[in-house]
Amino acid sequence: MKHKKLAPFSVYLLFSICLIISCSTTNTDSVAPQEIPANSSISTIFLINYTHPTNCFKVSYPVGWNVEEHQTSVTFNDPDDSGTIEILMENTGLILDAVSFENFINATEINWFGTYKNYQETGREIDVEKGYARLTKTLDWNKIPQNVFSVYQQKGKVIYWISIWENQVSSSSRQPIFDQVIESISYNSAYCEDLTPYQTLMPFTGLYNLFSMQLPLHWTHTSEKGNYFQIDTFLSPDSNAAIQNITYDDGKKITRGAADTIALDFLKELYAKDVVIPEARVQSDNSIRWIWKSPSGKFQGITFYETRGTSFLMLTMMYVNDQKEIYFPPLDAAISSYAIPK
Question: Can you name the residues that pair with 165 across neighbouring β-strands?
């Protein structure tokens, strides 16, 4: 991809706690894009048809552009690197309502484009009834000013995310081509509703580099800091699932008994007073795992916690009871990627 970076619990959750996310991705930078040669002409550029291997969509792209194909996306790059077209599809597991659809868009814009220097949104058009949005922005990529516009199109349980990047010096000449590409897209979401929900992930590094993990790109990130704690939360667009990490350090060494008390206090204070813990287990790395549920709140979760000197770390995954099939895959991916430096 052209990018230098990439790939709610409303139900009784007292998410007055928010968090800060510092996310960076590991995609390799491409060579800095150049201006379109002065002798190039729109009339000499033709489009060729393309079908993604999943059959989830078809599109026409400029002849001669390089194609980078991935499991759930495709990227078309101008040979001189002055323009890029990206199409990505994300299975959300269920049809998002108007609020959830906009949450998806806002999270994507902040978590992805917001990481670039001089990022500024310049235009926004959203038609929630049609599940359609178009946003424009300017930003710097490899120190070169870019005009970028993104189209979000919801088709059933799938959201297609199309982004077009262009050097600002070239935008006026390429816009007609990009308009043709957008108009040529045809969607067949029935082929991709079996894709793993929310499988586009981004790296996240916690406070003081105490831990790192891979988290869903399209989930809302918030943060809250106190005198001795920081709480980082990722909330799904429909608020039916969340990933939350708590870092607590008051400068005093924490015993195992004190850690148990701190963990239980956080569970009851943040999620539900009636938390029930049917399973508690010591992991191979000496961390503690609790499987718990809230009968009154109709949601459940898994919590891991451990101590590092004076630091207490607590990671919690939670979801509405009847949404396990949708949210277990991204939550499991986050758990599997969780790492604490030695």
Answer: 84, 148
CATH for 201-337, options being 3.40.1000.10, 3.30.70.360, 3.30.9.10, 3.40.50.11030: 3.40.1000.10
Element (H or E) spanning 337, and its range? helix 324-337
Q: For the residues 73-90, what does the mean pLDDT come to?
A: 94
- Tell me which long-range contacts 134-137 makes (C-beta under 8 A, separation of at least 24): 135/105, 135/109, 137/109, 137/113
Q: Which two tokens stand for residue 220?
A: 């809302």
CB proximity list for 26: less than 8 A, separation 6 or greater: 5, 203
Half-sphere exposure of 228 (CA within 13 A, CB side): 10
Average pLDDT over the chain, rounded to whole?
86
Architecture of domain 42-191 in this structure: 3-Layer(aba) Sandwich (3.40)
> How do beta strands 57-62 and 299-308 pair?
unpaired
Question: What are the two backbone dihedrals, phi and then psi, of residue 42, each rounded to the nearest 5 degrees?
Answer: -60, -35
3-state secondary structure 218-231: CCEEEEEECCCEEE
120-127 β-sheet, strand order: 66-70, 73-77, 83-91, 158-167, 144-155, 132-141, 120-127
| pLDDT of res. 25 | 36
pTM of the model: 0.84
DSSP codes of every residue in 14-78: -TT--B---B---PPPPPPP-PPPTT--GGG--EEEEE-TTSSEEEEEETT-EEEEETTEEEEE-
Helix (H) or strand (E) holding 311: strand 311-320
The neighbouring-strand residues paired with 132 are 127, 153
Residues of CATH 3.40.1000.10 domain(s) within the chain?
42-191, 201-337
pLDDT confidence band for 4 (50 / 70 / 90): very low
Mean pLDDT, to the nearest integer, of 69-93? 95
